[in-house]
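Quick illustration, no need to memorize.
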Amino acid sequence: MRRSRLSVERFISRTERVAGRARGQGRVNGARVPGTGTGTGTAGVLLFLALASLAGFTGLMLLGHEPFATWYYLFAWFPTLVAADAVVALLGAAGPRGSFLLLSRPRHLLSVLGWSSVIWLFYELFNLRLQNWYYVLVPEDRVVRWAFTVIAFATVLPAVFLSERILRGLRVAWNVRWKPLRMTAPRLHGIQLVGLVFLVLVLAWPRYFFPLVWGATTLIIEPIVYRRAPDRSILGDLEKGEPGRLLRLLLGGMAIGLFWELFNIRARAKWIYTVPGLEDVKLFEMPVLGFFGFPPFAVECFVLWQALVIVGAAVPSKPDLRFPLSRARRFVAAAIGVVFSAAILFAMEGRTWDSFRPALADIVDSSGAALRDAGYDAFELARANTDQVARVAGVERDRAESWIRFARLATLRGIGATNARQLQSIGIHDVETLARVDANELIARLDAIRDRPVVPARIRVWLRAARAAAERDG
């Protein structure tokens, strides 16, 4: 019996060694293993193509060509994600060198993209209360607006996961060890209680406790993940005294935060922050102190993803038999995600989306048809010379000047045509006049004519931009 058992063990050991060599070559029993690569050539080609695409899209954006100028954030992020996955493959951070984290695993990739949109919309739900950011110059067509918004939000989770893998491939925090943190039932309950307190403070007094939104969910959900799958848990890592994954998520979060803001700053359809007390000192669109929110946000994304995996709603990068993915469970989870997303997108109408992209027809009347034929849009008109516009359109100089003034007002800091018309109705016809108006007076006058509440922080954004423009032009 003992000899038989030893023979079986030797057979299993030999089989595992052969399988391991086969996995390194990307095949087992003649079939390709998901997530494995056959070399770095494909990754190198994709890296080159992605960077070339990013450069091309950036050039088209800077020249004002649509849709790249409006949706630059989206056109910049997808090549960046492909480039990042190629770097992961070249570093061998997702398996054998040449293996991609996302591109080699189509079902996992689709799951990550879909749940990424849902997770960010979860934070848009919080922002309905916080009012810390809003979106400007989005397309007026609702179907287009919703579709492009969902696609843009799909980049969040991939960015978090790829940045952590790149840092892992570079062996950042690879051998860092510290004193193990023993997890007990009281400690886990205490962590969740702190998370609930954070959540209550954020919702009850958002002006003062808004930063806690980036930690509340982690503290509530992470103990649940730890109890179900310690190996998928940050707390599980800390219990082993291995903080490497946590440190990489934090560092990666800061890095991708810079890219998020960099790709947003020159896009026409963009977000603008109105964070209480932090509206004046900014890097790109983000208040400088706000960058410290990106590291905990990256951790939250990781925790929420692991929670989706353990309930069988998301497809992990590698099969995990502990959490079966039944078709019925995936369907129910996807249906819930779609309904939730649609509800939040609907709630964002008129509250988080503040203005639509101004069309030339919003600015000029029928006599300006020649401008459209000449290739003008609202943004080019705002930069145009009065005499040239009058000559192209065949109109009097005064009319051309009024068009240009309105275009400059509508394109300033995402004001948009509708808001610009409201400003005109109370006697503010150009940027120079807007720059001279008192903030409180303007808020009161707009509040009297609007059918929805005025957000004072957004009005202050307009005034700061108008004053900066008037000072620059004066």
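Residues 1-38 have pLDDT under 50 and may be disordered.
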